[in-house]
Amino acid sequence: MVKNENLRERFYGYTVQCVECLKWRPIPTIKEFEEIRANVSEDPFTCKKLKLTCDDPGDMKPDSSIIWAFDEAGAPKTPPGFDRDGILRKDCSQLDVFYVTPEGMELRNSAEVAMFLEEYPEYKESVSVADFSFTPLKVMAETIPEDYDYLRRVCVKT
Ligand SMILES: [Zn+2]
Fold first, then answer.
1. Using one digit for the tens of pLDDT, what is the confidence trace for 125-155?
2. How remote is the CA of residue 60 from the centroid of ligand 1, in Å?
3. Is 62 exposed, middle or buried (0-12, 13-18, 19+ CB in 10 A)?
4. Dist CA 16 CA 26 (whole Å)
5. What domains does the chain contain, in order, with CATH numbers?
6. Which residues pair with 99 in a beta bridge?
7. 8: CA distance to ligand 1 center in Å?
C-alpha cells in the first residue's frame, strides 16, 4: 500500500463484445460496464442491451491506436469512492490491477486491502476483500503498436 504519487495508466474506455454479431460496443460509463461485467457469464452481452440491433454500425475495432486488454468476466463492481486502474507490464503482456482508495492509497493485492480495512475500519460495514479483484488483464497483442516503447510511454492509452 503506497501513496498514489506516481502517474499510472488510466483505463481510457470500456467496450463489450456482442455474443451474436461479435461487434465491439463502447459502453458509456464505467458503472454500466461494471454492471455488465459482473453478470456477463449468466447474462451474455448483446447489442439489445444498448437498445441497438446487431445491424447497427458504429462498433469499435481493436487496432494499435489504443492498447486493449480483456477484463475479468464476473469481476466485482468497484466499491463507491474507489478507482480501479492498471499498470502495464514491461513486456506488455498484461495489466496489473490496482485500486485507489478515497484517501489516495494504492491497493495492489488482497493483503493490502485487508491492511487498509484494519487501518480504516469505517469502511468495513460497506466494503470487504471480496469486492476487489486483482486478476491481471490480458493485453490484446495486436493492439500494441509496433514501435511501442514502454519506457518512453509512446502511444500509451489504456
Ligand atoms: Zn450484436
1. 999 999 999 999 999 988 887 777 665 544 4
2. 12
3. middle
4. 7
5. 2-143 (3.30.890.10)
6. 84, 107
7. 33
